[in-house]
Automatic annotation (TrEMBL):
Superkingdom: Bacteria
UniProt protein name: DoxX-like protein
Bilayer-crossing regions: 73-93
UniProt entry keywords in alphabetical sequence: Membrane, Transmembrane, Transmembrane helix
Provenance organism: Rhodococcus artemisiae
C-alpha cells in the first residue's frame, strides 16, 4: 500500500481517537467508572491522562510527518486501554442497572481491540519513514 493510500486508515484511527479523547473531558464520570480499581490514585487522573494520550496520538496519526510514530503509539495505546475495557465489561455484567444489550456490547467490544491494533500497525508499516 502506498503512503497516499495509507492515509485513509490513519485518518480514520485519528478521528476515532480524537472523538474518544474529547469524550474523556466531556463525560469523565463514564470513564472514571472503568478505570481498574487496582490502579493507585484517583480515577479522574487516569481519565484525563488517557484523554490527553488519545488526542496526542490522534494528532500524530493525522500529520503525515509523524504518522509512522502515530501508528506505533496507537497500537500501544489500544493495548494499554484493554484492561479498562475488561473492567467495564466485568462491571457491566455484574450490574443490575445495565441493559442486557449494553452488557452484550461491552463483551463484544473486547475482541475489537485486535483489528484496531492491527490497523495501527498497518499505518506504521505503510507510512513514510
Amino acid at each position: 500500500m502506498s503512503p497516499q493510500r495509507s492515509r485513509g486508515p490513519a485518518l480514520r484511527l485519528a478521528a476515532l481517537l480524537a472523538g474518544a479523547g474529547v469524550l474523556h473531558f466531556v463525560l469523565p464520570a463514564r470513564f472514571d467508572s472503568i478505570v481498574p480499581k487496582q490502579l493507585p490514585g484517583e480515577a479522574r487522573h487516569y481519565t484525563y491522562a488517557s484523554g490527553v494520550a488519545e488526542l496526542a496520538v490522534a494528532t500524530t496519526l493525522a500529520v503525515p510527518r509523524t504518522r509512522r510514530l502515530g501508528g506505533t503509539l496507537a497500537a500501544a495505546l489500544f493495548v494499554a486501554v484493554f484492561p479498562a475495557n475488561v473492567q467495564m465489561a466485568m462491571s457491566w455484567l455484574r450490574s443490575n442497572r445495565v441493559s442486557p444489550a449494553a452488557k452484550a456490547l461491552a463483551v463484544a467490544r473486547l475482541p475489537l481491540q485486535i483489528p484496531l491494533v492491527t490497523e495501527a500497525l498497518k499505518v506504521r508499516r505503510t507510512a513514510r519513514s
